[in-house]
């Protein structure tokens, strides 16, 4: 019996240059690969963004497409699942959390504030003490200020204690904000849709270091992890793994 193998790919930095569209060479290669193994895509972005990067036909061009880490899951072109923060937490818990964050920011004494302190997304909240609609200059200044003042780490510690029973993960990234999402809503989320159906699940990603957005799925005992440095490297490593026997 042939092994049932799934090759799962991150998008940014793995199949495309970050934030750019995939090359014809990469897309052709993935179709060649599909003749030998099943191929899936798992990206942190929403489906619209993944379609911009990999093509409008992405849902039918691959066996699985997991956008937002699998909160939106497609198999063979059909949507098989959809999840959201709103449904997962429920309106009451969500409101309690948002109210607390807004009170906390209101009482925060920092040099400047602008607007949009919470951005509500399908699978996460993005919280910014200065407010997301600050200028680039203000953004740079806040980053410098926060390195000394530790506004974000302090706020995260308070939220962690106050909302311990919510089981949330806090991720400080970028210059002015941090993300909040349920524990396990990283790329490992998508594995629930495939783990029973394959003997081997190979994952290819560029940010496999601790703190990187591929780290958890790369480290998962359910996957064979591969660290890549570019789309060309992805193609090279896949050829060695699947096409050169
Ligand atoms: Mg990446």
Tell me what the structure shows.
- With 245 residues, this protein is an alpha/beta fold.
- Helix content is 36%, strand content 21%.
- The strands form 2 sheets. Strands 5-4-3-2-1-10-11 form a 7-stranded mixed beta sheet.
- The radius of gyration is 20 Å and the shape is elongated.
- Residues 10, 12-14, 205-207 line the site of magnesium ion.
Primary descriptors:
Hypothetical Protein, Haloacid Dehalogenase-like Hydrolase, Chain: A, domain 2; binds magnesium ion; 245 residues; Rossmann fold; 7-stranded mixed sheet; 9 helices; alpha/beta; 4-stranded antiparallel sheet
How are the SSEs placed, and which strands pair?
Blueprint (H helix, E strand, L loop, with lengths): L4 E5 L14 H10 L4 E5 L4 H8 L3 H4 L2 E4 L4 E4 L2 E5 L2 H5 L1 H16 L11 E3 L4 E3 L8 H14 L1 H12 L5 E6 L3 E6 L17 E6 L9 H5 L4 E4 L3 H13 L2
Given helix and strand content, the structural type is: alpha/beta
Low-confidence stretches: none
Strand order of the largest sheet: 5-4-3-2-1-10-11
Total helical segments? 9
CATH architecture of the largest domain: 3-Layer(aba) Sandwich
Subunit structure: Homodimer.
Enzyme class: isomerase
Pathway: Nucleotide-sugar biosynthesis; GDP-alpha-D-mannose biosynthesis; alpha-D-mannose 1-phosphate from D-fructose 6-phosphate: step 2/2
EC number: 5.4.2.8
């Amino acid at each position: 019996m042939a092994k049932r193998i799934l090759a799962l790919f991150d998008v940014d930095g793995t199949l495309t240059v970050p934030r750019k569209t995939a090359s014809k060479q990469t897309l052709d290669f993935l179709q060649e690969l599909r003749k030998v193994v099943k191929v899936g895509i798992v990206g942190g972005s929403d489906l619209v963004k993944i379609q911009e990067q990999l093509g409008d036909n992405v849902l039918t061009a691959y066996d699985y497409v997991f956008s937002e880490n699998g909160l939106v899951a497609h198999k063979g072109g059909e949507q098989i699942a959809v999840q959201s923060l709103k449904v997962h937490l429920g309106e009451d818990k969500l409101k309690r959390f948002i109210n607390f964050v807004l009170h906390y920011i209101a009482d925060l004494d920092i040099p400047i504030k602008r607007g949009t302190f919470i951005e509500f997304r399908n699978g996460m909240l993005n919280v910014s003490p200065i407010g997301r609609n600050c200028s680039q200059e203000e953004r740079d200044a806040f980053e410098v200020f926060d390195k000394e003042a530790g506004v974000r780490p302090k706020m995260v510690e308070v939220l962690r204690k106050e909302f311990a029973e919510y089981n949330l993960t806090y991720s400080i990234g970028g210059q002015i904000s941090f993300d909040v999402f349920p524990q396990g809503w990283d790329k490992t989320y998508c594995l629930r849709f495939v783990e029973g159906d394959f003997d081997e699940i190979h994952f290819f990603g560029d940010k496999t270091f601790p703190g990187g957005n591929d780290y958890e799925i790369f480290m998962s005992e359910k996957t064979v992890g591969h660290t890549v440095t570019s789309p060309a490297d992805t193609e090279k490593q896949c050829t060695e793994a699947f096409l050169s026997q």
